[in-house]
């Protein structure tokens, strides 16, 4: 009974899955096949570093050589010899009367011009632009929204405990809210303003107009002169040089007589062992069909089955590798220690004569020779004095705006209306009522959730009223009033000025002694003295050479899922293809080899169907002549020969099934021991195909 229930459940699941997967909008008389898309995998090569790259160090010792060096032991120096100054006589010009200027008066001619005078200024007058109004709908709340409380009872559960079986609790009694009606004054027309125009005020005023502008006339004031004593240099001041000789001394010079190199010690690289787990095939899943239910009444072997999408675990491989703990390095130590050697490693000295103070010169001043001469000098330059000429004026009448035009605001009061609305006077609340505890041994009812209240919103009640609103406030528009002018004649007086006349200066020629070349010194060189010393120098210090050792790699092939397979869509097929359709292949007697004619039949009838993505079952049968075992083997080989040919044409092997039935499914009476014609035996020798569900 239990097995029957399990089988029934499996069949129900299979029918449910099939019902859910059936094609939509199926047409009567049509046949459909469910196609499966196979999983597509590809191989990827993953390269793993199993041994790291490191460096190997080779050291080489230091190299020395002895050299002879020429050093300076006496710097030599220089001595100075005085070269005296050279003088010459030159002619120079002295100004005995400076150049000056005198002023000559110039007078221009007067002129008359027309002047435009404003007799009435431009102004503006204001024109009133009234305000604009419109009626709008205003939403007024006549009853405010509020919240009422709904009682949510407590939740209880029973537990196995000693003593109390129902704890003391409380229940809530809802006290409803109290409402009241109030009167409220609402503005239905807002207060506004209108503008009243106030015109400008004008008056006539006397305006003074200048018909002849004030001017000035120029009067010349002559220059003033006087004679002054001027000191002239007839021989310039100069200098003579006196030599101060150089001073010499000796000093000890240290030099490096021998250089010392370094010793190198190699610390080789160190390694550690490790391993790495590589995923060579990712986790996936595929569709699998269950076995046929044992109590299935359908004759179709594909019925009474259900599909399962089962997970395929990932596959891993472990690769051993070597890690670099520390790379190769070198330790450098000196071949000589200055702390252990007095005076330092390889140091020596020699005596050298040096100049302490260089030769210099001391300058002795020679004063200049001068002479006093008389010179006429301008004390006060010529100037001009301006005398004011007053302006001539005339009085004319002019209309002037005293007060500009303005506007005066007149208040328009607002309109109000009294409406009634209901508001919450006292909000809803709850009152707790005690529920006493009930006790008994063993069972106990415990309150899991205490009683609460839930707020329910009661919406406000509103009413739409009409309200007059000012859209555009009243303004004013300015209108320009042009100014009025009149033309009068105006005399411009002649301009007086002064013209400068140059008076050349008066000069005289004198002689003076000038130093053509200043005194200087000439340097006489003293030769340097040299000595020869020997010293050992470091030709090439100890050095190391790094030789890189390349890393080692291992390539692991990894399978990667390119596209996921599974049940996809239903495809329409010809109904005759769902049943076994004959494939008229003429097999040679006892042979399972396809002839060229058989291949042409497969290309014409079977390949176009398979290119639509459906799955096909190939079935082959024999007649009853011969043994049952040989007939079964021959039929299986013939069905497999058809499948192999289709695979060579590029058909996916997962879409092909080969079944051989031998003489098990005869179509007529021609069994063993029955006499039949060759035509009747040929009816049993057949190869068929039919479209099946994809497994």
Automatic annotation (TrEMBL):
Key words, A-Z: Cell outer membrane, Membrane, Signal
Entry-linked SUPFAM superfamilies: OmpA-like
Subcellular location: Cell outer membrane
Ranges for domain OmpA-like: 574-695
Keyword Amino-acid biosynthesis: no
Major site of localization recorded for this protein: membrane
GO CC field: cell outer membrane
Domain of life according to the entry: Bacteria
Pfam families per the UniProt record, alphabetical: OmpA (PF00691)
Alphabetical list of InterPro entries matching this protein: Bact_OuterMem_StrucFunc, OMP_bac, OmpA-like, OmpA-like_sf
Residues in the signal sequence: 1-19
Protein's UniProt name: OmpA/MotB domain protein
Species this protein is from: Tenacibaculum jejuense
